[in-house]
Write a structure and sequence with these properties.
The chain has two domains: 109 residues, Alpha-Beta Complex (Aspartate Aminotransferase, domain 1); 250 residues, 3-Layer(aba) Sandwich (Aspartate Aminotransferase, domain 2). The protein is built from eleven helices and eleven strands. The chain has a seven-stranded mixed β-sheet with strand order 2-8-7-6-5-3-4. Strands 1-10 form a two-stranded parallel sheet. The longest helix is centred in the C-terminal third of the chain and has 22 residues. It is globular.
């Protein structure tokens, strides 16, 4: 990673293509493949292999805790961010006039659980302006009835990264008792994380952290564990799943542990453990610094081509995603793919994402292709 020779060795599947779509699917390193082989060998041991499974789970818990600046006791796992947010919703008893604040840059998994269910809170939407979420627009949405404020650290939609400290301070000053939840799916493994003040931190595992599907990180601060304990049956999440009273009551473990209702996807944890340890060895600070520079070059290059990024570039507060709108976005995506450049081009926008395994040559190839393609689509 970062070094071209190491990229060729550790990410051989990138040969011959400019993969700029990590915001959708990350490319695992060879060490992650080795970890999955280790999982397979441990699984072949049957019941005896569980000792290795639980050991890897504990190792994964430790490296995740370091990545999130939390303690291992504050970390749990479930299957995906959608499951995590629905379990989080189960921890609340909403009155009809209780409120939850979401925003229009968030992924559906963090926004929609508050719109479902029988006892729904009033949902207030913090709307972006010119691709940014402004604190002056948030404050009027906060009230004594605000129970939770949900954000993504880096938006999947346009790459906007929320200035964390001012945001958290603003919520705490207005509503000290509100729960602050943050989705770091588009940041874990790519950005140096400091989500101090967050009660809940959630992340999928198949993007920037180099892992695979089937896993989700859940971080619950110890101070909030008792009030943020999922209400769900199961066994892995229970204090005494096989005790004499098991058919009379079910008492969950507090906080993050309550989100693992059943045995975790060990394959996903083997992969996440290997991916985060690989990134830790490289150095997240180095990955962020290197990748941020590439993001800056893409921002500047898009403007030269006449394409306006959907979110402004902030050198001190960047993520890995750059997005622009275009009426022919899908056609641009197909043309880039024909040039060996992988991006995401859903209706009306093109999303480019850069990680530590990308190179300046990838950026140069992207911009050269866009100069030709955009000119061609404009003339057409």
């Amino acid at each position: 990673m970062i070094d071209p020779e190491r990229i060729r060795t550790d990410f051989p599947s990138l040969a011959g293509r400019a993969y700029l779509n990590t915001a959708a699917e990350g490319i695992p390193s060879t060490s992650v493949g080795e970890s999955l082989r280790a999982y397979w060998e441990d699984k072949l041991m049957g019941m005896e292999g569980r000792a290795a499974h639980f050991k890897t789970e504990a190792e994964c818990c430790a490296v995740v805790a370091r990545s999130l600046a939390m303690t291992p006791e504050e970390i749990g796992f479930c299957s995906c961010s959608s499951e995590a947010y629905n379990l989080l919703a189960s921890t609340f008893d909403f009155a009809p006039d209780d409120e939850v604040v979401i925003n229009d840059l968030d992924f559906p998994s963090g926004a929609t659980p508050w719109l479902a269910g029988k006892d729904r809170p009033r949902v207030r939407v913090w709307r972006s302006v010119d691709g940014e979420l402004n604190l002056d627009d948030l404050r009027p949405l906060l009230s004594p009835r605000t129970r939770l404020v949900q954000v993504s650290l880096v938006s999947f939609l346009n790459g906007y990264r929320i200035p964390w400290a001012p945001f958290a301070a603003s919520v705490r000053e207005s509503v000290p008792t509100a729960v602050i939840a943050v989705d770091v799916t588009q940041a874990l493994g790519r950005c140096v994380l400091d989500c101090a003040g967050a009660d809940v931190v959630i992340s999928s595992t198949h993007k920037w952290s180099l892992g695979i599907h089937g896993g989700c990180v859940v971080g619950i601060r110890s101070a909030a564990a008792d009030r943020l304990t999922a209400r769900a049956g199961g066994w892995y999440n229970l204090q005494d799943a096989f005790g004499a009273q098991r058919f009379e009551h079910a008492e969950a473990k507090p906080g993050a542990a309550s989100f693992a209702t059943g045995m975790p996807s060990f394959a996903a944890l083997y992969a996440l453990n290997a991916g985060l340890r690989y990134l830790e060895q490289v150095g997240i600070e180095r990955v962020a610094r290197y990748s941020d520079a590439l993001v800056g070059e893409v921002h500047a290059g898009l403007r030269e081509v006449g394409l306006a990024p959907m979110a402004p570039y902030r050198a001190a507060c960047t993520g890995g995603i750059v997005t622009f709108r275009h009426v022919d976005a899908e056609a641009i995506g197909r043309a880039l793919l024909a040039d060996g450049i992988h991006v995401m081009s859903p209706a009306g926008r093109v999303r480019i994402s850069l990680h530590g395994y990308n190179t300046r040559a990838d950026v140069e190839q992207l911009l050269a292709s866009l100069r030709r393609i955009v000119g061609r689509t404009a003339s057409a």
